[in-house]
């Protein structure tokens, strides 16, 4: 058996990706015959046009490492028995998930002190719908409604009949800070006028 690890690897994930893009393979620690090393390199050539086997299957079988070997008599290591051409039972077996498949993961989580509920199934997971979000927003709005000042609560709601250019905030409401400010300015202005009249007398 030749190999045992991916042909492209690095100290970091980024370095591994770089080696893949550049086709850089390190055979330093692999005890391989020159013919095998050449065979692997040519199979992993970046440019598909120059890759071994791009022209024909015979190009692969005529490689020095395989030349002279009669592949017609080779028995496949596994021959699937299909009920029909569209049978996918082998794929279903390979990708089916069993309850005990995550046993080692649960053990690691328990050893780390994480809370694990063994009888909880992923099917019980509740997704969040738009209606749930809308309801939560309404409840939140009602909660903060109590924090409003009495003056804010007395404000008249805006109506479609309001003139353009006017804010939905009612400047004339009794608790309006703008009305209070204008009243103070008016009182101050009147007192100044009265004071001026008295000075003239």
TrEMBL record:
One of its GO terms (molecular function) is protein serine/threonine kinase activity. Keywords: ATP-binding, Kinase, Nucleotide-binding, Serine/threonine-protein kinase, Transferase. Residues 1-66 form the Protein kinase domain. Residues 63-78, 145-155 have a biased composition (Basic and acidic residues). This is Serine/threonine-protein kinase, putative. SUPFAM superfamilies: Protein kinase-like (PK-like). Gene3D superfamilies: Phosphorylase Kinase, domain 1, Transferase(Phosphotransferase) domain 1. The keyword Transferase applies. InterPro entries: Kinase-like_dom_sf (IPR011009), Prot_kinase_dom (IPR000719). The keyword Transferase applies. Residues 63-84, 145-201 are annotated as: Disordered.
């Amino acid at each position: 058996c030749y190999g045992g690890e991916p042909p492209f690897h690095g100290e970091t994930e980024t370095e591994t990706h770089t080696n893949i893009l550049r086709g850089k393979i390190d055979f330093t620690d692999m005890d391989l015959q020159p013919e095998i090393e050449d065979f692997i390199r040519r199979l992993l050539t970046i440019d598909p046009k120059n890759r071994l086997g791009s022209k024909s299957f015979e190009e692969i079988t005529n490689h020095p490492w395989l030349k002279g070997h009669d592949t017609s008599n080779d028995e496949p290591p596994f021959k699937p028995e299909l009920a029909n051409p569209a049978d996918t039972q082998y794929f279903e077996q390979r990708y089916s998930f069993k309850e005990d498949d995550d046993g080692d993961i649960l053990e690691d989580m328990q050893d780390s002190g994480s809370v694990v509920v063994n009888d909880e199934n992923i099917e019980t997971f509740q997704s969040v719908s738009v209606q749930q979000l809308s309801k939560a927003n309404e409840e939140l709005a009602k909660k903060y409604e109590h924090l409003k000042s009495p003056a804010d609560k007395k404000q008249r709601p805006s109506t479609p009949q309001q003139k353009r250019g006017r804010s939905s905030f009612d400047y004339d409401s009794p608790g309006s800070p703008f009305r209070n400010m204008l009243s103070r300015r008016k009182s101050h202005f009147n007192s100044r006028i009265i004071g001026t009249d008295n000075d003239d007398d």
